[in-house]
Amino acid sequence: MMQGPGSSIRMKNEQDDEAGQEMKLLAEKDFREKRLEDFDDVFADIINGLLFHGEKRVLENDLESGMPRSAYKNEKNFERGINL
Asked: Which of 7, 47, 68, 79 could bridge 3 with an S-S bond, Cβ 3.0-4.6 Å?
């Protein structure tokens, strides 16, 4: 089957659309993950699992909420400690 000159453009646009949708899904997943980490019990479980092989050394009652901070990097610079 022969493809016309516009067919490669359509295929590229479809690929871009799929990539854009995948990025949106990943961003939503990342947002949900960060929201879960806001819960003291979930955060304590993550730390205990990753650092202490599941041993309960960090308890949810030992945790305090802090000021959310973020880092932003663009092509020209890197800014640390941006308060949200």
From this structure: 7
